[in-house]
Amino acid sequence: MTGLGGALVLVVMWDVFHTLWHPTGQGRLSKSLMHAVWRASRHLGTYGRRLSGAAAMVAAIGGWAVLMVLGWALIFWSWMPAGFLYATGIDPATRSTVVDALYLSLVSVTTLGYGDITPLAPWLRIVTPVEGLLGFALLTAAVSWVLQVYPALTRRRVLALRLMTLHRSGAAARLPSMENATAALLLEGVTQQVEQVHVDLIQYSETYYFRDQDRSTSLADTIVHAQDLTEAAQQSGLPDVRHLGSMLEEALDELARVLDAQFLHVGGGTDRIVEAFRADHRVDAPA
Q: In 3-state terms, what secondary structure has residue 114?
């Protein structure tokens, strides 16, 4: 049981490392848990689908915590009761070693340390504080994760809002007749924001699981307006504008490829992927 418990702890730490500290990676455990929540949210009402992103992150963090507690409990259980000293008034013969192992693991990971059950073996006296250290590290990592994700979500929503604003102001219709400098400023700005969202999606793939109720800030609903800009740019009589339109189109194609490779798996061209993206993020109707 000691080996199995140690393996569980290592699995958790490896998953945390790949999810939080590997720039382009994501642990299999956290990815599976978040994807399961995402799939389940498709069958819920509007409110449930809107909370899918936060619920997915809670599921991942909860999964890490549960497996860490179980892993250390298995390590302690293998050595109970002989390897531990019980406080006066506690008779080990009348207690469940399984419950005591879980209890000791919980108070250790939360750094409470009541002292009613203490290890006797030297190596157990060393590894027990290690669990507290790892528990504190997990809490810190979880907080850092949340603080990293929300700026990426903000950038995605800013892009969506800008695309909606451009659409409502008729920018695509006026783009072919715009002056070179004005059109360049518009297209370059949108392209940079699309590329930023692309990078964010690779580094913080969990942001995909957040649905936006307001269509003005939902990239799944407004990304088609970026495609409108690329089509309008090709109608311009200015070569530079057409070139910048091609750059935006390529940025959208790259973003679509990432969406399809990591989440949608529908294949086909950008139009098909964008439509699947929109359907997958729909809040007010079943996806």
A: coil
Selection from 76, 68, 69, 74 nearest residue 92 by Cα: 76
For tokens 């507690």, the residue is: 69
- How much is the pTM? 0.86
Residues 78 and 182 in one domain: no
CA atoms within 13 A on the CB side of 94: 3
In a domain, 285, yes or no: no
Q: Going by C-beta distance under 8 Å and a sequence separation of 6 or more, which residues neighbour residue 166?
A: 172, 186, 190, 225, 229
Digit-coded pLDDT (tens) for 119-140: 888 888 888 889 999 999 999 9
Share of the chain above pLDDT 90, in %: 73
33, 89: one domain: yes
Residue 84, strand partner residues: 119
Per-residue CA distances from 90 to 83, 93, 149 (Å):
15, 9, 46
| DSSP for residue 110 | T
Q: Which residues pair with 118 in a beta bridge?
A: 85
> 71-118: per-residue pLDDT in tens?
999 999 998 888 898 888 888 888 899 999 999 999 999 877 777 888
Residue 88: how many other CB atoms lie within 10 Å: 5
